[in-house]
């Protein structure tokens, strides 16, 4: 058995795995916000996926990486659903109208949050997210998202095939548990973002 995106607790029962480092995703986006805030104090919100496993790891790393100038004021799950994320974003605006940054766990939900912000006439909120899809990269390019972390299905798939073959052939240097490379994408480097799929 070979796994993608997650690794089994008992690794003796699998050939191998290609995983996404969700803790690194959260950390990178938190650090981007810290750098972007500079010396100014800013309210930060999280619109998460579903509580548990990957979402919790990503969230914890994000919160840990926030500096003293980035104040987390809101954290609510949207269950990986765009429509739910739009509702959560509307609630966020009512509770914290001065929010400056919003970390949304994936780009589909981020598009829902963006719709809520646009509807409310709030164009100054900086959205950071995760995925690297064509829609996500375009949103970064246009300035609708401030940043996204690209860790694409294409990269996962290609790496999984290479590693399965390498592990079966016992090729030197092929790791049993390998991490998919990611890339922090901002408006400055959208042209370098890896393709999302074939």
Automatic annotation (TrEMBL):
Residues 10-170 form the Periplasmic binding protein domain. This is Sugar ABC transporter substrate-binding protein. InterPro entries: Peripla_BP_I (IPR028082), SBP_2_dom (IPR025997). Belongs to the bacterial solute-binding protein 2 family. The keyword Signal applies. Pfam families: Peripla_BP_4. It is found in: Cell envelope. It comes from the Bacteria. It comes from Streptosporangium vulgare. The lineage of its organism: Bacteria, Bacillati, Actinomycetota, Actinomycetes, Streptosporangiales. Keywords: Signal.
